Structure to design on (236 residues):
């Protein structure tokens, strides 16, 4: 996935780079001459991409270079027809590399909305106070827009809800009680588990608030590496 971080890393690698191309004329003759061509803020493909693979996937790096080329931040310098070529910073790219910013073009980098939160929750009265508190007292005052999974039926889940999750930079889930288990603990709504799974598939890192009394097995199996937080909706 293209990100501002990777695009800036590509510009940073090109910034200050020097590529040299040497040509020989009349080799082996008394009139032999050597001509050296230098291009600043330029690198060949391998020296540019290989160091970035320690931090990013190859597909993401190549996609970032393509985005930078389309935005006229990166160009190519070629020697001869079908000869050696290098990636070079354009004046626009040099400016962006120096400022470490894409200015107005930054909006084209994101497939998601950087200040939108998808709030996964059950639509039940017992959770209403916690939901209102999070939305009106925490998220909205901090400048975040909040959307949720209000939809009718499975088809809506597959379309509009998935689109909302994908468009939201952040994913917050209120994993509250739904079904009582034989052990006396609880599981939550199957819809919430599906929404958590969708968020993980879209490479989000869900923040899950778990109500006291939820069975450990149903309290975020996909997020075992992340500590969950117990909450009591009635306390708000």
């Amino acid at each position: 996935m293209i990100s501002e971080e990777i695009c800036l890393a590509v510009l940073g690698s090109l910034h200050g780079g020097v590529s040299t191309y040497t040509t020989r004329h009349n080799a082996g003759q008394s009139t032999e001459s050597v001509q050296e061509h230098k291009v600043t803020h330029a690198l060949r493909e391998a020296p540019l991409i290989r160091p970035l693979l320690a931090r990013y996937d190859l597909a993401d790096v190549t996609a970032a270079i393509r985005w930078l080329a389309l935005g006229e931040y990166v160009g190519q310098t070629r020697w001869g027809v079908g000869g050696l070529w290098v990636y070079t910073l354009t004046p626009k790219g040099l400016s962006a590399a120096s400022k470490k910013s894409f200015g107005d073009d930054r909006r084209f980098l994101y497939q998601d909305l950087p200040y939108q939160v998808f709030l996964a929750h059950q639509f039940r009265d017992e959770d209403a106070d916690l939901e209102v508190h999070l939305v009106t007292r925490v998220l909205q005052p901090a400048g975040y827009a909040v959307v949720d999974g209000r939809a009718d039926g499975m088809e809506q889940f597959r379309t509009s809800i998935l689109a909302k999750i994908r468009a939201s930079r952040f994913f917050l889930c209120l994993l509250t009680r739904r079904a009582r288990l034989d052990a006396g603990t609880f599981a939550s709504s199957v819809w919430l588990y599906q929404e958590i799974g969708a968020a993980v598939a879209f490479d989000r890192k869900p923040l899950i608030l778990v109500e006291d009394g939820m069975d450990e097995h149903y309290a975020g199996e996909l997020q075992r590496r992340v500590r969950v937080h117990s909450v009591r909706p009635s306390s708000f």
About this structure: The chain has a mean pLDDT of 85. The longest strand covers residues 18-25.
